[in-house]
Amino acid sequence: MKRRIGLGRLARTVARPTRRSAPLGGGAVRSRYDELQPLPQHPPDWQTGPPDFVIIGAQKSGTTWWQGLIEGHLEIVRPRGQRRELHFFDHFWDRWPTDEQFAHYQRYFPRPAGSQVGEKTPGYLYQPWVAPMLAHVAPQARLIVLMRDPVDRYISGLGLLQRSGALRGEVGAGEMGSREHRIVEAIDRSRYADQLAWWLKHFPREQFLLLQYEACVAEPQAQLSRTFAFLGVPDQRASASQISQTRKKASGHVEIPSEIRSLLAKRFIDDVERLEELMPDLDRSLWRSLAGVAPRA
């Protein structure tokens, strides 16, 4: 793999472990996010600083689609050449960033006067080290969370693992338990209340916008208007073509027997009960996998 050029010394070494920390990797599946992208080019009168908003999750819950609609607003920009997902804090699972590294993160967000800029990395919701780091570098950032029927999200997550090759092979083949660990992780990613409770220890509730993916699909303009109000920008209508063009269609599907779907629904129901305390407007009827499932005594 060719080394990216133009990152500068910091960007080339930001993910390099310190002498006291274990090396990154450890057999993990490599991806395009293993290297930082170059800092974006921008006009000299644009200012950089902490992101105005971050879409932190959840994975496979329409975050790419929603980001595209948000960035269609006239007062919201994405710097030219900036990829949709930064995955900056993925690199700091084993150490606290230096002041220089925090400053480097802020330089990913240039914007002209009167505009907003943000990022989307849906893994942040699940990664517990990100909340305190983001609170340190961007304490005023508004946080957007899209959540999908937890069973459907899990199955879609399996599709992602299948396309990456993580579901291939026999049980225990290669790295011991690697496939099983990824599957359990996919289940845990659908336990939204557990993850949000941790984030709420680092950011006040008023800095969160919690959305249901299914509500966004059913009433995209209403939920988009709600999002713009949360961000403090004027309302703006999205055309039908914008709504359809920005919605990402995943390829491939993992078939799950009804017995396993029922088991998963029972696994998630207690977490959804706790989520309703954090999100009083949660419409459980939109999550059809949970229909008829009662909380455990």
Q: Return the average pLDDT rounded to an integer.
A: 86
Q: Strand percentage, roughly?
A: 5-15%
Instruction: Characterize the biggest β-sheet.
Output: 5 strands, parallel
Q: Which class do the helix and strand fractions yield?
A: alpha/beta
Shape call: globular
Oligomer: single chain
Low-confidence runs of at least 5 consecutive residues: 1-30
User: Helicity range of the residues?
Assistant: 25-40%
Global Rg: 20 Å
The number of helical elements comes to: 11
Number of strands: 5
End-to-end span in angstroms? 53 Å
What's the order of the H and E elements? HEHEHEHEHHHEHHHH
Question: What can you see in these coordinates?
Answer:
- It is globular, with a radius of gyration of 20 Å.
- α5 packs antiparallel against α6 and α7 runs parallel beside α11.
- It is of the alpha/beta class and 297 residues long.
- The chain has a five-stranded parallel beta sheet.
- The N terminus is likely disordered.
- The chain is 37% helix and 8% strand.
For this entry, give a set of tags.
alpha/beta; 5 strands; 37% helix; 8% strand; disordered N terminus; 5-stranded parallel beta sheet; 11 helices; 297 residues
Please give a quick description of this structure.
Helices cover 37% and strands 8% of the residues. It has eleven helices and five strands, in the order H-E-H-E-H-E-H-E-H-H-H-E-H-H-H-H.
